[in-house]
Amino acid sequence: MRSTILLAAVLALAGCRGMHSDKAPIHPNLNMDFTESFEPQEANDFFEDGLAMRQPVPGTVKRTGLRTTENAPYYLGRTADGQLVPTIPMEVTEVVLARGQERYNIYCAVCHGEAGDGLGIIMTGNDGQGYGYTPAPSYHTDLLRARPDGYLYDAIANGIRSMPSYGHQVSVPDRWAIVAYIRALQRSQNATAEDVPEPIRDQLETYNPNVTLD
Ligand code: HEC
């Protein structure tokens, strides 16, 4: 008898699920049904900084609201009239180059190769067969050396043909740092003996017997 009543109660309760009712719901288990909500800019003691609004995690790449009209060359790699900028619109220091090298080796080298020759692991792996991806071009062509810096920036920010965009992962200053590093790679792979400072030029033959000095 008792189990029949229990069964009836369980069925009656279960039967209520999903049914429409105009009455206020009963909350036997409050759980997270009622959470306190905060207004924008409101204080909240729960967090150490006393703010209810949480900040984006460090390193978050901003995707909207960039001050593009104010500084189009820096943010878009284009001049105000839409032309690709010829040169990097920020100072290139040794620190910037080192950062560019680090970011390049993380994001680009897998396809374009550490030397920028297009022979990254994605292209050469799997017993030299690659993985069926569109070949990544080498940067060491007259055409790419002659391209404006904005062209390289644009490829990172928006992708180019079958190459996807790296705009979500790589911040604006890091994109320019990578551009600077690609320029360094291009210079290094197309260098002449004259690019080497005179005092150490005679050491060249040690490293590359094909270079003839006069
Ligand atoms: C997953 C592989 C892959 C990665 C990673 C990658 N690329 Fe590419 N990239 C390609 C391919 C493939 C092309 C050629 C696209 C086409 O022509 O369809 C290309 C083309 C380019 C071009 C244009 C070259 C030209 O001939 O005009 C530039 C510049 C470039 N990549 C720069 C970068 C930079 C900088 C990074 C790192 C932020 C990067 N790529 C990361 C695969 C990749």
Secondary structure elements and pairings:
Layout: H1 2-15, H2 72-76, H3 94-107, H4 109-112, H5 121-124, H6 142-146, H7 149-158, H8 172-189, H9 198-201, H10 204-207
Helix pairs in contact: 3-8, 7-8
Bound molecules: heme C (HEC).
Task: For the structure shown, list the relevant keywords.
Cytochrome Bc1 Complex, Chain D, domain 2; binds heme C; mainly alpha
In CATH, what is the class of the domain at 78-191?
Mainly Alpha
**Computed Rg:** 30 Å
The appropriate CATH architecture of the domain at 78-191 is: Orthogonal Bundle
Looking at CATH, which topology of the domain at 78-191 would you report?
Cytochrome Bc1 Complex, Chain D, domain 2
Question: What is the number of E strands?
Answer: 0
Helix content: 25-40%
Low-confidence stretches at least 5 residues in length (pLDDT < 50)? Answer: none
> Structural class, please?
mainly alpha
Q: Give the end-to-end Cα distance, rounded to a whole number of Å.
A: 111 Å
Q: Tell me the fraction of residues in β-strands, as a range.
A: under 5%
Mean pLDDT, as a whole number? 87
**Overall form:** elongated
How many helical stretches?
10
Biggest beta sheet attributes: none
Write the CATH homologous superfamily of the domain at 78-191. Cytochrome c-like domain
Question: Could you give the order of the helices and strands?
Answer: HHHHHHHHHH
Distinct compounds present: heme C
